[in-house]
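Hi L.,

You mentioned the student needs an example of a multi-chain input paired with its predicted structure. This one should do, with 256 residues in total across all chains.
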Amino acid sequence: MTAPGNAAPGPKTYRARPSVWWWTNKRSYTLFALRELSSIFVAWFVVFLLLFVWSVSRGEQRYERFLDVASNPFVVALNVVALAFLLLHTVTWFNLTPKAMPVRAPASLGGRRVPSTAIVASQWAGFVVVSAFVIWLVVG
Amino acid sequence: MRKHAAEPLAWLGFSAGGVVAALFAPVVLFLFGLAFPLGWISRPDHAHLVDVLSNPLTRIVLLGVCVALLLHFAHRFRYTLMDGLQLPQFSRAITAACYVVALLGSVAAVYVVFVA
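Structure written out for the whole complex:
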């Protein structure tokens, strides 16, 4: 099978189409697929956050109703799964950062590459600071 | 696949949203999805939340968070569909659909955060 106008037909190698379930073959592939699926729960988080803000702005009754709906076992189960995926995203994102964005110390300090563990640790410190700030802001 | 001029921008949105999702999303979902509804921590007063949410800075941050997260979602999910389900022939339609979702979500966020 040659495209029209292709004067010298070369051998066309056969390539099997991988199965849609290729990511179940190996643990690292499965983890990769789960990481990619976390984006669905990021979208769910936006929906949940906006529903919360909307409920608060609609008055106290709506806000109480929002929390009651959120305590429904199905919604709780969904949010437990969502939180697990969000944390998977956090862990994988922090671990990838030193690979995607290597940091070097300034030349005055020797210009050495900052170790990956330091970059990952500083991100977890940021995570703790942001979490503490949100808790302080909301709980007071 | 043809390299598109918008690709660096898409990557920027993906990264910004990735950072926001990693730092900010877990604590908020833990509080409002589990701790408050299940009574692990006593529910904050409605009046206090109205105070926090009526601060212009809170509103701007919330909108930025939503837009960044939606851009992150759009970029990652389009590759999940294209590579995961092996649908490269529909790449344009998938890309368009994902970013339309992000756009509609952002419009909804503007409405909820600033208008409603």
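You could point out the following to them. The longest helix of chain A spans residues 27-57. Chain A touches chain B through 54 residues (CB under 8 Å).

Best wishes,
N.
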